[in-house]
Design a protein that fits this description.
Shape: elongated
Bound molecules: S-adenosylmethionine
Radius of gyration: 22 Å
Distance between the termini: 41 Å
Number of helices: 12
Strand order of the largest sheet: 5-12-11-10-9-8-1-6-7
Structural class: alpha/beta
């Protein structure tokens, strides 16, 4: 059963991470013959598919590599300066599995898979610019609204500073040109507003069921360990986002989305645009949380006014007509204007992204 879950996880990363794919296929075979992987995974035999035991196993090994404690495996890990040799990868992994069996078992049984993708800040930046311009036009204001950003399922909160990133677009820099964190957002098309206008975020807050404190080394390693070790650009993006987060900390509260949102939205705030944002969270929320989240938002939307507008901005996957494929859509709802727009589509990590504003039913 566990071996099957490892194989499932290996199929999901086959095209994008040959290293993780090879590791998980070899580990599945080792599990089936009762090798050392079975001792590392002891206690996780009945874990649910959704807890992705294979990725927890790969993450635990990656963490030891990043801590500099598995030098033979590090030689295969690009995130540690190595180069993968897939034919000898498993032999190197076996050495580490035998040497650190107990510690790896503790890591696997005590961690949940936790990702935070800062590439999603790019569609968020364009989406916020669009929302502030549209809300100002609806309210008959010349100046755009400052923003109160509320993120549900924020993980380590790495997407809570979209205005502090330098975005390289068409040879110019949008956002914060002095930022230590630079993104090439890979945009086709553009949001239909003036992107050079400064985006002001006057309040930011986030919640998560399992928040990660990126101000700590443990938090940084935790998020880093779940980036596939042959995806160096993504890994570096994460490190840059963590460095920025340490310069500009925003705490992420431990809470379920609806409970937290109800408190945040209890009173409308005048002269700011309140934006509720979530990315790649909806699929993990329980049906009860989804229903409650919708009700809380509908209640807040009914209380929104032109001077205290409310927006919902989401970046979530939707199955396409092509079998088994997903596209990630950026959707915007604005109250009291009653606007409902699909701003564009992209891939899961937010880069590249195509802007194409259409009505959203
Ligand atoms: C795939 S991660 C995405 C994290 C982040 N939004 C991003 O785009 O990088 C999904 C996150 O949602 C959180 N989550 C899932 N259900 C939740 C709920 N009901 N309330 C709050 N957070 C939740 C998880 O703990 C996890 O951190």
């Amino acid at each position: 059963m566990l071996a099957e879950l490892f194989l499932d996880a290996s199929r999901a990363c086959e095209a994008r991470s040959p290293l993780t794919h090879t590791l998980l296929v070899s580990a599945a075979a080792d599990l089936a013959r009762g090798g050392v992987t079975a001792r590392v995974m002891a206690g996780a035999e009945c874990d649910r598919h959704g807890t992705v035991p294979g990725l927890r196993f790969a993450g635990a090994l990656h963490r030891l590599v990043l801590e500099g404690r598995a030098p033979e495996l590090a030689e295969h890990y690009p995130t540690a300066g190595g180069e993968p040799r897939l034919d000898t990868l498993w032999d190197a992994a076996l050495t580490v599995l035998h040497e650190h069996t107990d510690e790896l078992r503790t890591l696997v049984t005590t961690t949940v898979v936790q990702t935070n993708e800062p590439g999603r800040s790019a569609p968020l930046f364009g989406g916020l610019q669009t929302a502030t311009h549209l809300a100002a036009a609806e309210a008959g204001r010349r100046a755009t609204f400052p923003v109160r950003l509320l993120e549900v399922g924020a993980s380590g909160g790495l997407n809570l500073r979209p205005h502090r990133i330098a975005y390289r677009v068409d040879g110019t820099t949008l956002g914060d040109p002095g930022s230590p964190f630079t993104l090439d957002p890979g945009w086709t098309g553009r949001p239909p507003v003036d992107l050079t206008h400064p985006l002001r975020l006057v309040r930011r807050a986030g919640c998560d069921l399992d928040p990660v404190d990126v101000s700590t080394e443990d938090g940084r390693l935790h998020l880093s360990s779940f980036v596939w070790a042959d995806q160096v650009a993504r890994f570096e993006r994460l490190q840059a986002a963590v460095a920025l987060a340490r310069l500009d900390p925003v705490p992420v509260r431990q809470a379920t989305g609806p409970e937290w949102l109800a408190g945040q939205l209890a009173r409308p705030e005048r002269d700011v645009l309140t934006v509720v944002w979530h990315s790649v969270v909806w699929q993990y929320a329980s049906p009860a949380d989804r229903a409650m989240g919708r009700a809380i938002l509908a209640d807040a939307a009914a209380r929104a006014t032109p001077k205290a507008p409310l927006a919902l901005l989401v970046f979530e996957p939707r199955r396409t007509h092509t079998a088994g494929r997903y596209e990630f859509r950026l959707l915007l709802k604005l109250w009291p204007a009653g606007l409902s727009l699909r701003l564009g589509t992209g891939v899961g990590h937010g880069i590249p992204f195509t802007w194409d504003t259409q009505p959203w039913d």
